[in-house]
Amino acid sequence: MDFLEFPDIFKEDRGAMNPGRLKMTNQGVIFKNSKTGKVEQVQGSEMESICWHRLASGFGIRIMMKNGQAYRFGGFGEPDHDKLGKFFSHNFDLEMKTKELCLKGWNWGTAKFNGSVLSFDVDKNSAFEIPLGNVSHCTTTKNEVTLEFHQNDDAAVSLMELRFHIPTDNSSEIDPVQAFNDNVVAKASIIQATGDAIAEFKELQCLTPRGRYDIKMFPSFIQLHGKTFDYKIPLTTVLRLFLLPHKDGRQMFFVISLDPPIKQGQTRYHFLILLFSKEEETTLDLRLTEEEIKEKYEDKLQKEMSGPTFEVISRIMKALVQRKITVPGNFCGHSGTPAITCSYRAGNGLLYPLERGIIFVHKPPVHIRFDEIANVNFARSGGSTRSFDFEVETKNGVVHTFSSIEKEEYGKLFDFVDNKKLRIKNRGTSFEKPNTTYNEDELVDSDLEDEPVPDAYLAHVKEEGKQREEETGGMGGSSEDESDESFNPGDSGSEVAEEFDSNPPTSSDSDEEEDDKASGSDDKSLKEKKPKEKKKNRSAKTVKEPGLKKRRKKKEKDENKPKRPQSAYLLWLNENREKIKKENPGISITEITKKGGDMWKELKDKSKWDARAAEAKKEYEKAMAEYKASVGGTTTTERGTKRKDKKESDKKASPTKSPGTFKSKEYISSSGTSSESDDEKPLKPRKKKKSEDEASEPAESTPPSSEENSE
To answer: How many CB atoms lie within 10 A of CB 477?
Structure first.
């Protein structure tokens, strides 16, 4: 038996059981993490022992290496015991022993160090084991040793620290506490900057985390030193390296993928992104001997290295991390570059289709491998035909939407996805090659083959409409019918017709309506009729004709009016703008403003600019006073008074009120004078009589006279 494969296996990593696929060959054991795609290989020749033991759920194996490192895999079933035992015995000549664990729960036992593993035994059986590579810090007191651990964000529960009480042994010359501490520190993953750095780069522009950092490269880790924060990145956490050309052709991105990420408070940085100019070059001497370069780095480095900065740093990182650098493949977009301009969430950036995945740079950076993609989808961008969205759904259900992609990129991106055999959601698994021209029918928001996704909001609105129709009995329940009936510019009863129609109703028509109201109807009929008319007019007002909308006239600018003075910050920025551009080549206008704001905050002596701003303000006030005097010297209050007087005069000179307006009681004909509709005469106000007829009538208020209005 030379080959075994298990699809659902978990690897223990700092308290988390990461799912993946385990493959065993006669060369060793290979584990591929299904979440990150990271592949770890355990060479068979380096194995020292294999143990089979029970876990919380199922069974697992522990592989002990000759260098003291241990690997733990879980998720096996009880029938796999014999199969695995025969495999390791046949291929590696190793006997798989069954390891019994102590389940008593005692906290008093014996600590044993076996390579990089600390085992706590009770009654000759192991109670628990601690991989010392997970220890981040170790401190001692008189009788105690405290271990602190590296935290794993993927673990639901993390062990923060563990304390061991060690009794004092007077008979021994060796201090047991110090001996325990030395054994832990010797194998612990404690980063200490000892010795000189192999290479050092000054003031490199970093996009994530943002700022300029000095980077020092040591044999086991990378140190980032900035103005505010420092980071130490172990080389074992580097997952992938990317070297990507910018779309402008003048800059390069160097992206370092990290797992686990570097942390700053609650912020996690899974990618380290450096930006270089292609024209920037550097020359440095590595602090390595010729023997170290030949033996440790296999002549991949030279004692003296020179060239473009991005090329030098990428070659050193490749040798230290011993990983390949990923570069763009054969994809070429509409602009002739391997990058596509798009937006992800709230940030703009560049999308790079690679040979084995896609990566978005830079905020927030996203890398998606092809083997974790369930399907992709081309969709319309908010109903626009000038751009489209590219949706990528992963197998764990997360959807990444890259929006605002130019329509010219559609054919190129479609061909790329088709060649990589990815399932296109809105076209199915079998389809023809699209035309190079943009086709709107191909960009849909849902899967054409699958059932449409139910719209909960639309169903809720339809349900409300049905209930409204049932309550009204199908009569008058539709607001659309009501607005259509009310809005009729040709109808004489419409307010829109009164105001804008070329043939408005004459005053005689309105007079006849008033006569009808006064002669042939009582108060009760008027009460029933008024609310309907009011409702009708209200619905007419809600509908506005776009061509009849009145626009405000823009105020004409007065060229003679003095301009407002600039602040001290703007005076400083205008003078230093070119300097900022030279120091930061390729910087955008918005970034110049942000950079200027940061520099202005750090500027200590601002007296020069404050004085210039104060002087400019005095000149402005002086010029403004002269301008006001030249205009005519009228103050704001006087102009407002003149405007008010003009309105009062316009009111007095206005013609007879338009039809349908309110008329006071003096102009309403009585029920006995219907024949006088042609020649109406004002009636004197009648004196109120306390009769039963008038008591039942609604009270009518007499409008104030013209003298009262003028007051």
So the answer is: 16
